[in-house]
Design a protein that fits this description.
This protein is of the alpha+beta class. Helices cover 27% and strands 31% of the residues. It starts with a strand and ends with a helix.
């Protein structure tokens, strides 16, 4: 998706990639590039890659590539995956996670608006 000279790229990752971090290929105007996902990435995280967007008209420079990470929660699990998630659930416990450190949807929406200059 394009917005002026900026390109918005939505990338879907799985919960393991979000929790553990990963390095994935993403398309850019200059070809495929490696993109690092930090451990603990939250759904809707927005990253801005400066100068990777569309060239500016009648001036030097380029827009930015804005990467929005969407985390997909599996709807069907193999027996092994289910066992692994149950073990993870057991180790995490049932206590409410602190919210002060985590960004919510509205925070991610604000980050995207800022990245787009809105």
């Amino acid at each position: 998706q394009r917005r002026g000279e900026d390109i918005i790229l939505e990338v879907t990752i799985n919960v393991a990639q979000a929790a553990l971090g990963d390095e994935i290929p993403i398309p850019t105007l200059d070809g495929e590039e490696r993109f690092r996902i930090s451990p603990g990435t939250q759904p809707g995280h927005v990253a801005r890659l400066k100068g990777r967007g569309v060239p500016l008209l009648r001036q030097d420079g380029r827009g930015d590539l804005i990467v929005v990470l969407n985390v997909v929660v599996p709807t069907k699990l193999s027996p092994e995956q289910k066992t692994l998630f149950q073990e993870l659930d057991r180790t995490l416990g049932r206590e409410r996670m602190p919210e002060a450190k985590d960004k919510g949807f509205s925070d991610h929406l604000r980050d995207l608006k800022e990245a787009l200059g809105l």
